[in-house]
């Protein structure tokens, strides 16, 4: 399984990557992206993953912009400190909504 993490806090991204990869050696985090712009640029030349873990508030916008532009059906686990986006998250393939810290 290939996973992409979209998270602007490097320590959080690294911790999440480590936790995910320890669950199963067949799980691979193929990229950690930190902005809307970086993510959209990355997917111009890379395949979509099997699953996203994504923060919502990024330095240059909300991660919802990424998924709306990609028009993807890949499931997303949102990891955020804000509960106000929960309903919107499930409209863009969100399958879970984890509140930080976890």
What do these coordinates show?
It is a single chain. The radius of gyration is 12 Å and the shape is globular. The chain is built from four helices and seven strands, in the order E-H-E-H-E-E-E-H-E-H-E. The strands form two sheets. Strands 2-1-3-6-7 form a five-stranded parallel sheet, sandwiched between helices. 25% of the residues are buried. Helix content is 31%, strand content 29%. It has 102 residues and is α/β, with parallel strands linked by helices. It has helices spanning 10-23, 36-42, 64-70, 86-89; strands spanning 2-6, 28-33, 51-54, 57-58, 61-62, 76-80, 94-99.
List keywords for this structure.
two-stranded antiparallel ribbon, 102 residues, alpha/beta, 29% strand
* Sequence stretches where pLDDT stays below 50 over 5 or more residues: none
Strand tally: 7
Helix content: 25-40%
State the strand order across the main sheet.
Answer: 2-1-3-6-7
The value of Rg in angstroms is 12 Å
Distance from first to last alpha carbon: 22 Å
**Would you tell me the overall average pLDDT?**
95
Instruction: List the helices and strands in order.
Output: EHEHEEEHEHE
What structural class do you assign from the helix and strand content?
alpha/beta
How many H/I helical runs? Answer: 4
| Overall 3D form | globular
Please describe the biggest sheet, giving its number of strands, its sense, and whether it closes into a barrel: 5 strands, parallel
Strand content: 25-35%
């Amino acid at each position: 399984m290939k996973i992409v993490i979209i998270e602007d806090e490097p320590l959080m991204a690294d911790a999440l990557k480590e936790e995910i990869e320890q669950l199963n050696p067949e799980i691979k985090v193929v990229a950690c992206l930190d902005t809307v712009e970086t993510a959209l640029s990355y997917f111009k030349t890379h395949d979509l993953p099997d699953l996203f873990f994504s923060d919502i508030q990024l330095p240059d916008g909300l991660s919802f912009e990424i998924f709306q532009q990609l028009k993807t059906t890949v499931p997303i686990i949102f990891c955020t400190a804000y509960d106000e986006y929960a309903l919107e998250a499930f409209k863009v393939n969100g399958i879970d909504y984890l509140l930080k810290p976890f």
